[in-house]
Amino acid sequence: VTIQSEAKNLGPVSGPNRQRDLCTFCTISLDQEEVFRTKVYDKSVSPFYGEDFYFEIPRPFQCLSYYVYAKSVFQRDLPVGKVSIRKDDLCKYSGKENWFSLQPVDPNSEVQGKVHLEMRLNEVITDNGSVGQHLLVRIIECQELPLISGQNCDPYATVSLVGPARSDQKKTKVKKKTSNPHFEETFFFEVIYCRENVIDLNRSTAHMTFDLWNNENLAQDVFLGETRVPVKILRKDSIHKAWYLLQPKGNGSKSKSDDLGSLRLKLTYIEDTVLPSACYTPLCNLLLKSPDVKPISASAAHILGDIYRERYEAVLPMVRLLLHHNRFVPFVSAVAALELDNTQEANTIFRGNSLATRCIDDMMKIVGKNYLAVTLKPVIDEICESNKTCEIDPVKLKEGDNVEVNKENLQGYVQKVFSSITQSSSSCPPLMCDVFRSLRHLACKRFPADPHVQYSAVSSFVFLRFFAVAVLSPHSFQLRSHHPDPEISRTLTLISKTIQTLGSWGSLSKKLSSFKETYMYDFFKSFQEDKCIEKVKKFLDEISSNISKESMSKRIQKRAQGKKRLGKRNFKKRWLRVSSRELSYHKHKGESSFYHCRLKIHRSSKTCRSQEEMFQVVHSEKPLYVQAGNCVEASEWLEVLGQVTRCNEGRLANFHTSNYTSGTWQCCKNQNNNAPGCKPCTTTVLANLQLDIDCDRETERVFSLLSSNDTKLQDMEDACASMAVYQGPQREQEECSKFTIQEPKETFQTLKQLRNVMEELQRQHNVRNDTTAQYGSGRTSSLSAHHMGGALR
């Protein structure tokens, strides 16, 4: 969903002079779960939010809601109003601009979720001989309860029997940190027939009330919802078991409220139906063979990017598919080579919003998420939590600010961020290194006379489009949960500017004239003496060249490569060195020209622990036995080697704890030399490194994008036909200038293949739309994706 919005005439908020100095922000929620938040806009009843949001909905939901809050310094943020749009109504507003009146926010009406109940009546004879009824109530579970302050709630339930002159209440236990609690608690309510207190369960207004609450310990408990069940629906000795949606307190009775203002929203809601996997095989194969198509502009993946030049997010499903099938590097290398052929000056390399830059941007966001968290999150957290003033612009200084102190604070932060980046090469994902290596090679080939182009080709991505952007907007890269406040945002802006210039200047050897602001010019001069150029070049070399970098180098004992039994006399002391590309060992420390062994990391290598201080590096030829100095050192080696081999293809699952001698594996006594291992290898799976990609879903998204632009595909076919037939002087025709067409015949053939595949997919959709689908049946499911942006005036 793409949303552009505007607010006007925001209503009053409690407190003196609240409307005059209203500082507001807007949140976007799925039901009661906040998913996005804008930054705070100062002192305006008609603020403007110029922010775009894109997300895929991972779960069922009922409402998409927008809340406007007034920012408060000393107390909780105060709600101004909200706009809630039910899921069924989203298509009605999709693609249009609409004004919505803000509605009041009542805490007792903000409910979601459902409760599973079981009730029955049992007739009993009491001790005094009278006949009565026992009402048995069992609370089984609840589902989809809201998050409280971004976390799972601590829910409990109260059960009440309410009738004439009677109200009995009982309470369940508190369930900790869950939005889907399983209570499985049973309560008994005794009803005795007598003259003084008669309740006719068939005709009276008696009812059961179930209230859900969040336990707040020291604060007042938060109401989560209620449901009421009339007792008259129960029948003797029959079980009533059903799900009930939670309702607002008092059934959400509304009172007339003041005018709270209006919110203009422009949203686009897309819901895709995913077919069985076999339906997508032809389209997926056509996209995956794109790197092999010559020229690359005639490939299906390039055509998709070409017809969606204006929509940045259109290439995302294609990038995910290529990443999942390990086809991204050859594709982006071919696309980058095509862009470089059309680049005339080295200093403008990869500066535009081209297909190559869009693909690499998406790849870095997907693959580099953990890299950013390891490299930048600690220092970003320190900046946001310490809240030191770093303003150095004389125009923006506040009364009492000391510019020299601010400059010192800013310099300290920049040094920490810069050091974290330039010392992080060993953590850079291998896939990013492969892409940077390819870009560097292509740039050198295109501009052989320029010694700096090999660095600018890499720095234009890793500094300008990755680290600098993450520092500027940490919330967009999941480094912070929300927008930082305006003062912290200003600090991050100054740091981002400096880091961007340090990276580009270090690689291009530019002068300080690139700064427009005098204060930034003066501030940046202090970094020249710290050999920043050398540090940046060293970092770029390590992530983009074949030069081995020592992420770890220690003296260890290596067992001789003969097939003798394990023993100390068979170990020799060697210096072991590991880089992101290879593992090698040497006789002397720092030795580079002579080595005894070098193992390529991108093979089926795997690290395994044999004993407390010994580990193996298992690869395709023979295992390498390594004896570390102690168990701690062995664990460090296992962790480092696990990181650099985590993306290897064909990683071994098992290994032999001993060696193969005298025709037998000494560990399991298996006589087959090629027998699989007898013990599982050491697993090293880092957070956020495994790509969870649903290929069917991504291919369906590609199909939807292509189908919605059938007109452009037809225009491209016409342009190919025109170019193939036209025999006159080569000139750029108007209809051809919209697309990149190098070989019209090859491109036309791919377009025909695309059209045939799309027609078959559309036929499959039509067949399934004609049949009645059952809930939860088969592979068919509905998925939704949203692009969101806010513009609130």
Q: Which terms would index this structure?
A:
793 residues, alpha+beta, 7-stranded antiparallel sheet, 5-stranded antiparallel sheet, 18 helices, 31% helix, repeat
Describe this structure in words.
The protein is an alpha+beta fold and about 800 residues long. The strands form 7 sheets. A 7-stranded antiparallel sheet has the order 20-19-18-17-23-22-21, covered by helices on one side. Strands 1, 4, 7, 16 and 28 form a 5-stranded antiparallel sheet that branches. Strands 3-2-5-6 form a 4-stranded antiparallel sheet, with no helix packed on it. A hairpin with a 2-residue loop joins strand 2 (about 25-30) and strand 3. It comes from Scophthalmus maximus (Turbot). This is RAS p21 protein activator 2.
What is the strand tally?
Answer: 28
Shape assignment? globular
Helix amount, in percent?
25-40%
Q: Which structural class fits the helix and strand makeup?
A: alpha+beta
- How can the largest sheet be summarized? 7 strands, antiparallel
Integer-rounded radius of gyration: 33 Å
**Share of β-strand residues:** 15-25%
Describe the SSE topology.
Blueprint: E1 4-8, E2 24-30, E3 33-37, E4 51-57, E5 63-70, E6 78-86, H1 90-93, E7 96-101, E8 114-125, E9 131-143, E10 155-163, E11 166-171, E12 182-192, E13 207-214, E14 222-230, E15 239-245, E16 262-274, H2 281-288, H3 300-307, H4 316-324, H5 328-341, H6 355-367, H7 369-375, H8 377-386, H9 403-422, H10 430-446, H11 453-472, H12 486-508, H13 518-524, H14 532-544, E17 552-559, E18 571-578, E19 582-586, E20 597-600, E21 606-609, E22 614-618, E23 624-627, H15 631-644, E24 654-655, E25 660-661, E26 664-665, E27 679-680, H16 695-708, H17 710-725, H18 744-770, E28 781-790
Antiparallel strand pairs: 1-16, 2-3, 2-5, 4-28, 5-6, 7-16, 8-9, 8-15, 9-12, 10-11, 10-13, 13-14, 16-28, 17-18, 17-23, 18-19, 19-20, 21-22, 22-23, 24-27, 25-26
Helix pairs in contact: 4-6, 4-16, 5-6, 5-10, 9-12, 10-11, 11-12, 12-14, 17-18
